[in-house]
Predict the 3D structure of the following.
Amino acid sequence: MLALHFLRALVRINQTSDPSRCIVAQRSRRIKLAAYASIALAAGRRRAWSRAVLCSLHGRRACRVRALSRRRVSSGKKAKGVHPTEQREGGGQVGELRRLVPGGRSMELCTLLEEAGSYIQCLTAQVQLMNMIADSMSK
Amino acid sequence: MSSRRSGGSRITEEEINELIGKLQSLLPESRRRSMGRASASKLLKEMCNYIKSLHREVDDLSDRLSALMSTMDRDSPQAEIIRNLLR
């Protein structure tokens, strides 16, 4: 799934970028965004980090509306773990992890560690994929 | 994770240790070895470092792929392979 999303995006980027005008750095940025989109799409919407990535890629306003309506619907379930007065540890290593994992700032600790694990797995797979593609293109 | 805790009750140390074991297995062997005896703070530090290095790798690989794409000919064998994969 990951490879499919990413390769499609690469082909699109290759087709839509005019080699004479497109700066390498611009294309590099598009490739990077495609990489994060691919891992988020492959992970699906069941992961908070992937939803956060897709949100930031598609625009914040649309996501705030969706998030509000989702919270109203599922009031009983996980909302208990996101109590506003429950202190989110902001300092030290936990704080840094919160900043590194997409959507990490509002997660309770246990969820943050789970999400970080999933995020690491997907990032690792993406890096391996990109290495493979780059190696095969260099031949 | 099977247990979902309600309200403000804290997770147990046992659960944390279990998580530490699982998360440690996600790190590459080289990083696991340099960690030595795993403690929560060491693991968190290694995880942060690893995520940062993965982000850097994505950046570098994006640059590399962009440079390669600018030299890639549409009719090259590599382009054909990619087109076949996507059919």
Chain B touches chain A through 43 residues (CB under 8 Å).
